[in-house]
Amino acid sequence: MNRTYQSTRGGEKGLTASQAILKGLACDGGLFMPDSIPQLDVPMKTLAGMSYQEIAYETMKLFLTDFTEEELKGCIAKAYDSKFDTEEIAELAKADGDYYLELYHGSTIAFKDMALSILPHLMTVSAKKNGVSNEIVILAATSGDTGKAAMAGFAGVPGTRIVVFYPKGGVSRVQELQMVTQKGDNTAVVAIHGNFDDAQTGVKHIFGDSSFADHLEKNGFQLSSANSINIGRLVPQVAYYVYAYAKLLENGEIEDGETVNVTVPTGNFGNILAAYFAKKMGVPLGRLICASNENKVLYDFFSTGVYDRNRPFILTSSPSMDILISSNLERLIYLSCGCDTEKTAALMANLSGGGKYEVTEEMRSYMADFWGGFAGEGETAAVIKSLFESCGYLIDTHTGVAAAVCRQYKEKTGDSHKMIIASTASPFKFSGSVLEAIAGPGQEKDEFAIVDELSRISGVAVPAAVEEIRTAPVRHTRECDPADMEKQVAEFLGCPLA
Ligand SMILES: *Cc1c(COP(=O)(O)O)cnc(C)c1O
C-alpha cells in the first residue's frame, strides 16, 4: 500500500514519504501526517525475538512505503551500528519497579541520536529518489541536544550542509562544548541572543520565506529540517516503543497483551507522540504520561484544554525541555479534531497571533490517553538522589523530571500497570546538576572536575562522547540576533544576501 502525506493545515497533500522527509515542514507551516496510522503486521510474539534493527524495519516500512526494502534496510544498517555503545541500541534497566528505556547510547549520549543517526540516510535516499540535484541545507533550532545529534548525523554526508542555532546561555556547558567543537566543513553553529523559542521561531520563519528560498535555489541549495517536526524524525522514534514492549515480553517481564504505561520527559512533544503512534499501531500501551519541568505549558493544556504560551520562560536544569511552543502537539491537535485541516490551521493561527488557543471538549476526550504532570527543580533533584541511594541507578535531570511525574501519577491515580520511563540523556551530559542532586550544593566548578567526581561517586565510566570534548578545539564562534539568522545562513553557504 502506498501511504501519502498531507499538511496538518491543508495546504499540501498527496506527497510520498520521501517527499515529506525532504521538505521537512509543509509550505503552509503545517506538519506532515500520514493519511492513516498503519497497524503492525507482525505479531508481538514474533517481534519479541527480533533485533533492534529488525524491529525498526518492521515499524518504519509501514510509514515509508516508497522506500524499497533494500533502501530502508540500508539506512537502518548505517544508522544503528557501532556508533551506539551497546548492541541492543536501546537498553531497558529495571529500577524501583519501573523500566527505564535508555535512549542515550548513541554518539551524542541523548535520545535525539535515535532518530538523527538515521535521518541523514533517509534524506539522501529521498533526494536520489526525487531527482534532487541541489545541495540540501539542514536548518535546526536546538535546545541543546538536537543540534549536536543532527551535526553528528550530517557531518561529512555528501550533498548536505547543516546550520544549527542554539540559545546562548540556554544550554549546558557539555552541550555547548559538544556543538562548538563539531568537526566537518559542512557544519555551522550559531549562538542566538535569545531563548530556544526565538531560535525555533526564527527557523520556521526562514522556511516560510519564499524569496529566501528563491535566492538559495539560484545558488544550488534547498532547505530541509532536522527538527522533530520532520516526519523522518518521528517515524524512527516509534520503533523503540515497539522494541521496548517486545523486549519486556521476550524477557518474561510481561504477558502478551498486558497493558504497559509510558512516561516521557517532554519538550517539543515528539518523543511522546511517537509512543502514541506505537499505541495506535497496536502496541498495548496504556496511559501516556507527559512530564514537563517548570515550563509546564503542556500540563496546563492537558488539565484545562487551553494552550497558552504567554508566560515567563524559565531556565531549568533540564534545558532540553525548556520549551513553550511544543511543535509536535499540532499533530495531536489535528488527529483530535478528526484531521480537520481548517480547524487545525485556525488554532495554530491563534497560537502565532495571541499565543493561545483552546480545544473543544470533544478534542479533549480524544486526548484522554494522555496525562500531564510537572516537576519542579527540588522534586527532580530529590528523585535523582533517592533512586541513586535506593537502587544505585543514576539518571539525568530530564529523566528525573519523568521519574518524579511517574511517582505523582501512581499516587494520584492508583494505576498499578507496569511503567516504561523514557530515559533521554546520559547523566554525564548534565553532570553539574546531577552531582548536585546526589551530593548536595557547592560542588566543584570546573565542568570536567565535576564529570570525574560524578564518575567516582557513581562508579559509572565517563562516556566517550564526554571524554572527546575535554581537549577538542573550539571551531565555531558565530553569534547573532534572531533577526539576522537568514544572513548567517547565506554567509555560511557563500551566497550573502544583497
Ligand atoms: C529533546 C529532549 C527531550 C524532549 O523531547 P521532545 O521529543 O522534544 O518532547 C527530553 N529530554 C532530552 C534529554 C532531550 O534531548
Overall description:
By secondary structure, this protein is of the alpha/beta class. The chain has a domain at 91-109 and 232-462: Rossmann fold (3-Layer(aba) Sandwich). Helices cover 44% and strands 15% of the residues. The chain has helices at residues 17-23, 44-47, 52-60, 69-79, 112-116, 119-129, 145-154, 173-180, 196-208, 210-218, 231-250, 270-280, 297-304, 329-336, 341-353, 361-366, 377-391, 397-413, 431-439, 447-458, 464-469, 485-492, and strands at residues 5-7, 32-34, 91-95, 98-102, 135-141, 160-167, 187-192, 221-225, 260-265, 285-292, 306-308, 356-358, 370-374, 418-423, 478-480. The protein has a six-stranded mixed β-sheet, sandwiched between helices. A five-stranded parallel β-sheet has the order 8-5-6-7-15, with helices on both faces. A two-stranded antiparallel sheet has the order 1-2. α7 links the parallel β5 (135-141) and β6. α17 (377-391) packs across α18 and α17 crosses α19 (431-439). The protein is globular, with a radius of gyration of 21 Å. The N and C termini lie far apart (47 Å). The mean pLDDT is 95. Bound molecules: pyridoxal-5'-phosphate. Pyridoxal-5'-phosphate (PLP) binds at residues 110-112, 145, 228, 265-271, 320-321, 398, 424-425.
